[in-house]
């Protein structure tokens, strides 16, 4: 069976839903520090777990005979700047707990997400390579880069089968975002439908690498299903799909909601966004395990707006 830690979060929620479709509801145990929405709670097993608490995770692993753990619990970039010590503790202690459980052979496989936040202001911004200068300037980025080194260490030294992807900003409509800098690209759709206007906390030409949730979930499952020998990079793979600016996404939304207006009021998150790349090179993921995104800005916007209108 599969255990998802952080199942109530933006990615965890949709990943759990998809895993339950693929593997069967009762074979995917959802867990988080707080209960999930009723769809999550009613469609399969749920356990309250603090992802830094190794003993509780082990108890659940034994209770359900878990062989794979997806660790999606973390504190994201904007919130982490407000609570650095808590962010470091949560992001690192949860990873080390799960890696140790794999090292001790309690589980067979681990998924842990990294992020484009591992890149910093000195990283080449365009078509950022897999291997390059990485001097993250955010607490979240520091924790993700450290986590990548730990994943690679546990794989090389103890043979732990841990796999990781550097997610770009992920756009979804089913769950509200959780304290990230790219969250403007989630909020903008909700506000366009509800209010017809949006005040953006990033400047209009801030280009960031992004991806529709559907593609992010598929990439996650694809790398976990890949043959071990094909997963050549055991720190974390660059992963790309689209990149856009607030101005470009607003224009795309206007095609569906002609009266939609956007204003710009950059806040502390502008500095975080400015430290990240504007586009990513993911040739390694394409070559090693056939990564291939499906959504662009146009098809993503079409899908989100039609779903939000239906709601
Ligand atoms: C954040 N959504 O904004 C996350 C992600 C690259 C962005 O790490 O913190």
From TrEMBL:
GO molecular function, one term: L-threonine 3-dehydrogenase activity
Organism domain of life: Bacteria
Matches recorded under InterPro entries: Epimerase_deHydtase, NAD(P)-bd_dom_sf, NAD(P)_epim/dehydratase
One of the protein's GO biological processes: L-threonine catabolic process
Domain NAD-dependent epimerase/dehydratase: 2-230
UniProt similarity note: Belongs to the NAD(P)-dependent epimerase/dehydratase family.
Protein name listed in UniProt: NAD-dependent epimerase/dehydratase family protein
Source organism of the structure: Polaribacter pectinis
């Amino acid at each position: 069976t599969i255990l998802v830690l952080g199942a109530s979060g933006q990615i965890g929620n949709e990943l759990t839903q998809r895993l339950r479709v693929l593997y069967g509801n009762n074979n995917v145990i959802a867990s988080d520090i707080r209960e999930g929405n009723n769809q999550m709670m009613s469609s399969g097993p749920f356990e309250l777990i603090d992802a830094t608490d190794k003993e509780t995770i082990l108890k659940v692993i034994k209770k359900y005979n878990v062989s794979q753990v997806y660790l999606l619990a973390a504190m994201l970039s904007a919130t982490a700047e407000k609570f650095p010590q808590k962010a470091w503790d949560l992001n690192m202690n949860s990873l080390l707990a799960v890696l140790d459980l794999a090292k001790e052979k309690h589980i067979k496989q681990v998924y842990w997400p990294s992020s484009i936040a591992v890149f910093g202001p000195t990283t080449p911004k365009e078509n950022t390579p897999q291997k390059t200068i990485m001097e993250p300037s955010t607490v979240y980025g520091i924790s993700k880069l450290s986590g990548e080194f730990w994943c690679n260490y546990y794989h090389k030294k103890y043979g732990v089968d841990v796999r990781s992807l550097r997610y770009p900003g992920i756009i979804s409509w089913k769950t509200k975002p959780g304290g990230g800098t790219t969250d403007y690209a989630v909020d903008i759709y909700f506000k366009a439908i509800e209010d017809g206007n949006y005040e953006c906390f990033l400047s209009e030409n801030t280009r960031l690498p992004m991806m529709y949730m559907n593609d992010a979930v598929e990439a996650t499952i694809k790398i976990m299903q890949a043959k071990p020998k094909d997963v050549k990079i055991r720190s974390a793979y660059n992963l790309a799909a689209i990149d856009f600016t607030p101005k470009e996404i607003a224009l795309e939304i206007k095609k569906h909601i002609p009266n939609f207006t956007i204003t710009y009021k950059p806040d502390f998150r502008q500095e975080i966004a400015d430290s990240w790349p504007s586009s990513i090179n993911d040739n390694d993921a394409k070559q090693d395990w056939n990564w291939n995104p499906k959504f662009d800005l146009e098809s993503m916007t079409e899908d989100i707006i039609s779903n939000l209108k239906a709601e």
